[in-house]
Amino acid sequence: xxxxxxxxxxxxxxxxxxxxxxxxxxxxxxxxxxxxxxxxxxxxxxxxxxxxxxxxxxxxxxxxxxxxxxxxxxxxxxxxxxxxxxxxxxxxxxxxxxxxxxxxxxxxxxxxxxxxx
Length: 117
Description:
Layout: H1 2-24, H2 28-34, H3 44-64, H4 70-108, H5 113-116
């Protein structure tokens, strides 16, 4: 009787390990494919890339077909780029000043580091 139980236990263990190995190899795509379904793919990144490419092409076409001459268009682009650069520098200076004020307040004990977090 004991030998029979032992053989049944060994057989059950072997069968369970084979089943576990088979099941572990099954992926979601296999299960969905067997019933005629598939996982939905997100196309958001692809769509965002297409919008960006369209914007670049549109900007290029706008420059090419602008009613202004090439010299005027380049001058205008240069002026706008310069304004953008100056604005970025101004924002960086403001952020630097704000950071220095905050550090000064912490160093003087006006604001404790724990209360800022």
